Amino acid sequence: MSRFMSQSPALPTSVIQHDTLFTTPLDKASRFSFDEQVVACFPDMIRRSVPGYGQVLAMLPILARRHCKYRQQTTDGQRVSRIYDLGCSLGGASMALAGEFAPHDLQIKAVDISPAMTTEARTLLSDNYPEHDIEVITADIREIELEPCDMVILNLTLQFLPAADRVAVLEKIYAALSEGGILVLTEKTHAFDEQYDAWLVERYYDFKRANGYSEMEISGKRNALENVLITDTLDEHHSRLDAVGFARHLTWFQFLNFVSIVAFK
């Protein structure tokens, strides 16, 4: 099956467990977190909850081949394309790239704040791509220093940061990118028009129903994500990219209320 037709993240099927986190009622105070329980079922959760995620991953190597031009240099003097996967979770984006590039072509730095995620990502990446230069880092992307790079991937990550911190993260990314480099920003959004937004949200719930989620599961996850995942409008994303210095940026992908933007340095 074509990678473009698959909704599955680039993870071995042996690690995929069924998402049953919200099959029973949760305490109203419970909040979503990227802990061991989420790690265990994360690929299934993403496949069934994020429209178009597989297509976004499949495009990353294509974008990288076009825009990563070996601008960086390793400590031993070798020219490479350095890519950051910020908010890497289990490393799906890093695996999508490693699977399409020779080991000596890329230097990937995958960063996530969740130790449960990075522990599993480190194992998956080292097991599947032992010859690639992939470093998995447990850190807050708001605090980590970025080396000069050719591409930054920010997939479904900015939405989990406080709104007040988002500009600073994008400013840091812009400063680290070499001229000609790109940022790929993928986010869940909401529409400014309430009627339009309500239609998108309900179709999104239909998407989840079609993927086997019950009304209790849909409601439970929605409640758990309240005040944890805070969306912006598409216009807000583009305005923010303008503000930090990206002169060119476009929405290259949209599936319901999920969008992916590419911004050019």
UniProtKB/TrEMBL annotation:
S-adenosyl-L-methionine binds at Y53, G87, C88, S89, D140, I141, N155, R222. Pfam families: Methyltransf_25. Its EC number is 2.1.3.-. Residues 83-181 form the Methyltransferase domain. It comes from the Bacteria. It catalyses: prephenate + S-adenosyl-L-methionine = carboxy-S-adenosyl-L-methionine + 3-phenylpyruvate + H2O. GO terms for biological process: methylation; tRNA wobble uridine modification. Keywords: Methyltransferase, S-adenosyl-L-methionine, Transferase. One of its GO terms (molecular function) is methyltransferase activity. It is an enzyme of class 2 (transferase). NCBIfam families: carboxy-S-adenosyl-L-methionine synthase CmoA (TIGR00740). Belongs to the class I-like SAM-binding methyltransferase superfamily. Cx-SAM synthase family. Catalyzes the conversion of S-adenosyl-L-methionine (SAM) to carboxy-S-adenosyl-L-methionine (Cx-SAM). Homodimer. PANTHER family: CARBOXY-S-ADENOSYL-L-METHIONINE SYNTHASE (PTHR43861:SF2), TRANS-ACONITATE 2-METHYLTRANSFERASE-RELATED (PTHR43861). This is Carboxy-S-adenosyl-L-methionine synthase. It comes from Psychrobacter urativorans. The gene is cmoA.
